[in-house]
Amino acid sequence: MPTGGELKFEVRNDAPTLTGANITFTIDIILPDIQLVLPNGEVVWRKNCFVNGIQHHEGEPTYPQESTDEQNEVFPDGSPLNHHGDQKSPYVFVWKTCGKYWQVSDGLSSSLTISTVDIPLGSYVMDVVIYHHRKRDRFIPIGYASTQFCITDQIPFAVTLTQLNNEEESDQTFIQNRAIVFSTVVHDPSSYLANSDITFNWDFGDGSGTMISRELTVTHTYTKTGFFKPHVLIQAAIPNLSCHTPPLTAAAVISEDHAGPVQLISPESASKDMEHSGSFSADMKTAPHLDTNGVMDLEAIYQDTIVFKKPRPSNSEQDCVVYRYGSFTTGITVVESIEDVQITQAVGALHEQNTVDYTISCQQSLPTDICTALSKCLSPGKTICSAVSTLPACQLLLRHLFNDSGNFCINVSMSNGVSVAVTSARVNVLIGSRFIITATVAMVLGILAVALAIGILAYKHVKLYQPLSEISAAGMTHSMPSLLWGLIKQQAALKHSVLLYRAV
Predict the structure, then answer these.
(1) Most buried of 48, 158, 211, 366 (most Cβ within 10 A)?
(2) Alpha carbon distances (Å) from 196 to 158, 159, 207, 235, 271
(3) Of 282, 396, 303, 408, nearest in space to 355 by CA
(4) Three-class HEC string of 400-450
(5) What's the rounded Cα separation, in Å, for the pair 294 and 280?
(6) Residue 325 CB neighbour total at 10 angstroms
(7) Which phi and psi (to 5°) does residue 343 adopt?
(8) CB atoms within 10 A of CB 409
(9) C-alpha torsion sign, points 78, 84, 87, 92
(10) In this predicted structure, what is the pLDDT of residue 137?
(11) Angle, alpha carbons 70-71-75 (nearest 5°)
(12) Fold exhibited by the domain 338-503
């Protein structure tokens, strides 16, 4: 018979939290397999079992409820207990940190959200004690858990770098002359920065200058190879909710009902009616005449100047905006990619029957792996991959053994852990005759065949026709195709080419 099990608790939070924002703590009670939660929230035994020597029966409540007066129920500290609707919450969670505590009545899952305005910067631990509520003032502790959180004045955010057709982005290696996408995610679960003006100051580390943007996603293309350190500085101008615009006073508003008539006066009468607040005397010092042809002593000019400092308003614009910052720096490597992959040649092997050698070339970066897929063009074939040894140049020889005649399609892909390049070709194989025709050569041979037919018709007029002798289907034939074959196989592979063998 089962022996029950222990309760488990998963407690977490959404830190790091920017100072002034709200932080949320969440806890889940994980029941053992022997216990079951009914739709009404009650926990019962799933089957008959023994726990601490006591037998329990299937369907029996795990924590028997006692009749209580719900209107007079209280928390462990004696404060009134509030219910969520008509359903009674069987658990009480007492959270405690920084000398304060909070009590929450809830089900198997609960959360607590608090403000960080009065919490100093630093790292803290939130403790939670879980009680099962039996009756009005009876609480049975069933577990304890804790979680660590931190309050910071730096904006928490993350930056991810992605690039199209990049084989492995996690190694921070990217391809030259191809755009890199910088995606920024600001960690703000409480929406504290929802009404803020957020700007990003980007420096990609390649001497291209600084870019300022309000977008979460930007792109940049590195035109040179090497190691770079992109850097971004984020600034958030946060409105201060405690700062309010002062209301207009009655003296600052003039209505049309109290406005008097407009009277035009002359400048002379205006100067007569003007009342001076002081008088000028001959004893007052005057500034010396400025000599535009030389440099004057500015200290002598302004030594008697009096500067009045304008008092700062109690509710200035600087007081109404709070600025927060954050920064991110990473290191990346930019390399060349494999470009312009081509099958430059497809010829029969010199000393092997039914075998075709492909010469494959590429530009810029050298490959480390090559994959080929050979099929009859109508249905996909098997893909074979192999490593490529170090090459002095991006050119190698690929060999295939054919067991059947027909048209074949070959797809070749090269990769080096950063980039992938592909190419394809079509080849016509005639088993036994050692006659291999690529798509390009086939067109040339077609033109030569027409010219040959015209030549034969002209030749019949001057000489009697003599039939050609044939050896065997598997051997060489002394005919025009054999002559062309001899011309084709003169295109030998390069001296430093790598030979990769395939059988089809």
Answers:
(1) 366
(2) 18, 20, 30, 10, 52
(3) 408
(4) EECCCCEEEEEEEEEECCCCEEEEEEEEEEECCCCEEEEHHHHHHHHHHHH
(5) 31
(6) 12
(7) -90, 100
(8) 17
(9) negative
(10) 62
(11) 75
(12) Immunoglobulin-like (2.60.40)
- 211-227 residue pLDDT tens: 999 999 999 999 999 99
CA angle 130, 123, 77 (to 5 degrees): 30
- In the chain, CATH 2.60.40.10 sits at 338-503
pLDDT band at 432 (very low <50, low <70, confident <90, very high): low
Residue 465 sits at φ, ψ, to 5 deg, of -75, 130
Does residue 422 or residue 454 have the better pLDDT?
422
What architecture (CATH level 2) is domain 157-239? Sandwich (2.60)
Q: What is the pLDDT of residues 330-383, one digit of tens each?
A: 999 998 888 778 887 777 766 666 677 878 888 877 888 888 887 777 777 778
What pLDDT is recorded for position 48? 86
Q: Per-residue pLDDT averaged across 420-429, rounded?
A: 81
Residue 181 phi/psi, 5-degree rounding, is: -95, 120
Q: Is the pLDDT assigned to residue 496 strictly greater than 70?
A: no
pLDDT cut 90: percent of the chain above it? 31
Amino acid at 151: I
Q: Which amino acid is at 397?
A: L
Query: Please, what CATH class does the domain formed by 8-152 belong to?
Result: mainly beta
- Radius of gyration for the alpha carbons in the chain, expressed in angstroms and rounded: 44
311 upstream amide cis, omega within 30 of 0: no
User: 3-state DSSP call for residue 327?
Assistant: strand
- Do strands 138-152 and 122-135 pair parallel, antiparallel, or not at all (unpaired)? antiparallel
> pLDDT digits over 439-468, tens only?
444 444 444 444 444 554 444 444 443 343
Cα 366 to Cα 388: distance, rounded to the nearest angstrom: 9
CATH 2.60.40.1930 range(s) for the chain read 8-152
Closest CA to 133 of 111, 109, 104, 110: 104
